[in-house]
Amino acid sequence: MQKRSFSPVELDAADPLRSFRSEFVINDPDLIYLDGNSLGRLPVRTASLMRQAVEQEWGVRLIRGWNEEWMALSERIGGKIARLIGAEPDEVILTDSTSVNLFKLAFAAMKYQADRDIILTDSLNFPSDLYVFQGLDAILTNACFVDVLKSDDDIITNEEFLLDRIGKETALVALSHVAYKSAFLYDMKRITEGAHEQGAMALWDLSHAVGAVPVDLNGAGADLAVGCTYKYLNGGPGSVAFLYVRKDLQDKLINPIWGWFAEQNPFEFTREFRPAAGIRRFLVSSPPVLSARATEPGLDLLLEAGMDRVRTKSVAQTEYLIRLCDEYLAPLGFELASPRDSAIRGSHVSIRHLEAFRINQAMISPPDGARQVIPDFRAPDLIRLGVAPLYNSFQDIYDTIHRIRQIVDGGIYQKMSGKREVVT
User: Which of 107, 180, 230, 244 is catalytic?
Assistant: First the structure.
């Protein structure tokens, strides 16, 4: 029996999450925003919360805010993130940036397993994660070798090859749960179990996964994880990140940055550092209070929506997007650069074209005065279309594909200079 073809209007009308779109600031209804996998939209609630945080908590309460609200922020908000990633509240804490957290946890893992010297990762991992591992190689006194498994097609990693690569000298298997370019979704449980079978630890970067796909760190037996809050969590530009350490490991690992807030009792002002017990030992210094406050409304919205429903809509939307690409864009020279199988795909879809950059430019700054569409570009030839189910509609996806077709069919991209800005 042939599948019924739904129009975007019908699909949006049947969407149980459609009301969440009104929870976000959309000041230009004609703008299509498909870059939520880089920077999420501003939740309406965040603006009023930030006014309260600035005018009341800071402006009125002043330093009293530390005892009234701020000292508990990192753990309290970490507990909300824990509910999205399958962890216990006392296993997650909001702190620092993703790269700083990755450095702290990778360092801790290598020191804990000092008789092993290999960090195993792959070529689909985010470049800055690789930079952190290379930096560890440069500064650790004992040997540290970064083994990067190459993907054959830059879309998926062969998990069989990856598991075979884990050996008795592997200290840490460190991967992104969802690959930043292709959206390849790894089997976290399988790979973590494979690492443990060889005595290695597993560290996951959840930046392109949290808020987009269900994550179950405890169910997978994961040791360590990090992630950002400014993509699908809608925490704001450069918002504070988070880290996870499995409970039984917390007091066994060493945070390499012995900061004030990682001390047992910071306000005793002792001269000798005493690491705090539990997850707090992975803090460093005072939390960025305003940034931390801004992360909470986006988390609340995802918890209200429920990750199972978010994932169901994400799969429906990305499958719809791929179907439209096959029909309208493949004849124009586009190739799919993400997995077709939704079971191994996150919530963004990448498409490849030789003129991807200029097409991307024409979408963002249309020379013909047409409707603006904001995706993003990844070198050398990818357009990433990030689907954020809480605020993206099926109509957004339909209109985007037809706009890309118009840009290529009409040669509109040829009017663009090809000059790249700092951020692409």
Answer: 230
User: What are the residue ranges in the chain where pLDDT is below 70?
Assistant: 1-5, 141, 423-424
Domain with CATH 3.90.1150.10 in the chain: 8-42+306-415
CATH topology of domain 47-304: Aspartate Aminotransferase; domain 2 (3.40.640)
Backbone CA torsion sign across 401, 406, 409, 411: negative
Question: For residue 168, how far is the Cα from the chain centroid?
Answer: 30
Question: How does pLDDT run across 283-303, given as a tens digit for each residue?
Answer: 999 999 999 999 999 999 999
8-42+306-415 under CATH 3.90.1150.10, yes or no: yes
CA-wise closest residue to 182 among 329, 383, 323: 383
pLDDT at 5: 57
**46 and 294 Cβ atoms separated by less than 8 Å:** yes
Q: For the range 272-280, what are the long-range contacts, defined as Cβ-Cβ under 8 Å and sequence gap of 24 or more? A: 277/250, 277/251, 278/90, 278/247, 278/250, 278/251, 279/75, 279/78, 279/90, 279/91, 279/92, 279/93, 279/245, 279/250, 280/75, 280/93
User: Is 230 a catalytic site residue?
Assistant: yes
Q: Is 205 a catalytic residue?
A: yes
Q: Which of 80, 231, 246, 345 is catalytic?
A: 231
Rounded percentage of the chain residues whose pLDDT exceeds 90: 95
Catalytic residue list contains 231: yes
Q: What is the pTM of this model?
A: 0.96
51-61: string of b/e by CB count within 10 Å (b at 16+)? eebeeebbeee
Percent of the chain with pLDDT over 70: 98
Domain with CATH 3.40.640.10 in the chain: 47-304
CA pair distance 171, 360, nearest whole angstrom: 41
pLDDT number for residue 240 = 98
| Distance (Å, whole) CA 317 – CA 304 | 20
Task: Give the active site residue among 35, 96, 129, 205.
Answer: 205
Strands (E), 177-328: 201-205, 224-227, 242-245
The answer to whether 217 touches 244, Cβ cutoff 8 Å, is yes
H-assigned helices in 113-238: 127-139, 159-165, 188-197, 217-220
Residue 4, pLDDT score: 53
Q: What is the pLDDT of residue 144?
A: 85
**Total residues found in the chain within this entry:** 424
Whole-number Å distance between alpha carbons of 328 and 345: 21
What span, in angstroms and rounded, lies between the C-alpha atoms of 72 and 394?
39
Catalytic hit among 281, 313, 384, 405: 384
